[in-house]
Specification:
This protein has 194 residues and is an all-alpha fold. The protein contains 9 helices and no strands. Helix content is 66%, strand content 0%.
Length: 194
Amino acid sequence: MARAGLTVDRLVAAAADLADEVGFENVTLSALARQFGVKDASLYAHIRNLQDLRTRVAFLAGGEMIDRIAAAVAGRAGKDALAAFADAYRAYALERPGRYAATQIRIDQALVADSPALRRTAEITYGMLRAYGLDEPDLTDAVRLLRSTFHGYCALEASGGFGAPRDVQASWDRAVAALHVALEHWPRNDHGDE
């Protein structure tokens, strides 16, 4: 193993690169082992199994993505922060498709609680939304609206799903502007229907 220079960080970075090349769902331990010229069994000194590897790639990608988003939203508020957040999200999803797919997997909540990157994601996202005067449970509902809108748009764009002649960037900008209006006029949860 030492001759191959295997470490957890090298394996995870290589798996993330492989995900961007062949798709996250096509990352296997065998494909990763081939990249390092070792047998599959050599990987088990560093990672438990494929699920462990995929979770680690998800954490790596989540950290990269929130770093990009944090830099974009720094010093901004309201519509400017929302647009910067959205644009950074979309850019990452389109530039790093395999890594982005990793950020969409379901992860054990016990692991999520221990992840600095995912805590930072929540802090930055909720911080941006608090500028709209939202509190729980509206914050969670707003996060779900943004995530589903951003993810859906990026998934459709990446798969070539927008066939109309309308410029995709112009539609994105309008969608983000519409989200801003929705957040400014958020229906308050006055009935305790959590």
